UniProtKB/TrEMBL annotation:
Gene Ontology biological process terms, A to Z: L-amino acid transport
PANTHER family, per database record: HIGH-AFFINITY BRANCHED-CHAIN AMINO ACID TRANSPORT ATP-BINDING PROTEIN LIVF
Keywords recorded for this protein, A-Z: Amino-acid transport, ATP-binding, Nucleotide-binding, Transport
Protein's UniProt name: ABC transporter ATP-binding protein
ABC transporter domain location: 2-234
Length: 237
């Protein structure tokens, strides 16, 4: 579904990614973990076309999307739930979901809305409520639901557990598993909470200073002493 080959990217003279190679197979959940500043968010943003890759290629379902503008990338089946959620705070929950459906066939809107609200019953209770008045967990649900309204083939999730209480984090990861299992959406998950991410993922990559340092199955990475020492000890919750 996704192939990243020798990807280099950054901001101005600052290069954040130094030749990243990653594959995400159709139907997989693949996790990317790493410390703050490793380049995880830059990688997801580069996949969406902003910033542009300075070298390398991004292939989505076999098509080279590296040089495409963002709106064309989204129309080809990629959706992004960004770090910090970035919902529209003055818009209602319903209006936020409408924004997510902007690139989809409007004939599917009612069906897609029903599907998202089945995943997130709490949003159904708050359809007329402004997004900015929701709790942090509810805003994260809205951000993921908005991304799903575009009917993505590949869903990019950036730090979905950020700033949330442990019980809410567990619930969010249960929903991510359900999206993959029940809807067949391929998921590329960027997450600092390595325990939850690798426990959920089929495979994982570890990004260090803009380069892939380790890769393997989620189970193998969880058992790796180096991963445990740097990302897991004292962090499982």
């Amino acid at each position: 579904m996704l192939r990243i080959e020798g990807l280099k990217s950054g901001y101005g003279r600052i290069q954040a990614l130094h030749g990243v190679d990653i594959e995400v197979g159709q139907g997989e959940i693949v996790a990317l973990v790493g410390a703050n500043g490793a380049g995880k968010t830059t990688l997801l943003m580069t996949l969406c076309g902003n910033p542009r890759a300075s070298e390398g290629r991004v292939l989505l379902a076999g098509e080279d999307i590296t040089a495409l503008p963002t709106h064309q990338i989204i129309r080809r089946g990629l959706a992004h739930s960004p770090e910090g959620r970035h919902i529209f705070p003055r818009m209602s929950v319903y209006e936020n979901l409408q924004m997510g459906a902007a690139v989809s066939d409007p004939r599917h809107f009612d069906q897609d809305l029903e599907r998202v609200l089945a995943l997130f019953p709490r949003l159904k209770e708050r359809l007329d409520q402004r997004g900015g008045t929701l709790s942090g967990g509810e805003q994260q649900m809205l951000a993921i639901g908005r991304a799903l309204m575009s009917r993505p083939k590949l869903l990019l999730l950036d730090e979905p557990s950020l700033g949330l209480a442990p019980l809410v984090v567990r619930h969010i990861f249960e929903i991510i598993a359900a999206i993959s299992r029940d809807q067949g959406v391929t998921i590329f998950l960027v997450e600092q909470n390595a325990f939850h991410a690798l426990k959920l993922a089929h495979r994982g990559y570890v990004l260090v200073n803009g380069k892939v340092a380790l890769s393997g199955s989620g189970t193998d990475l969880l058992a790796n002493p180096e991963i445990r020492a740097h990302y897991l000890d004292g962090g499982a919750s």
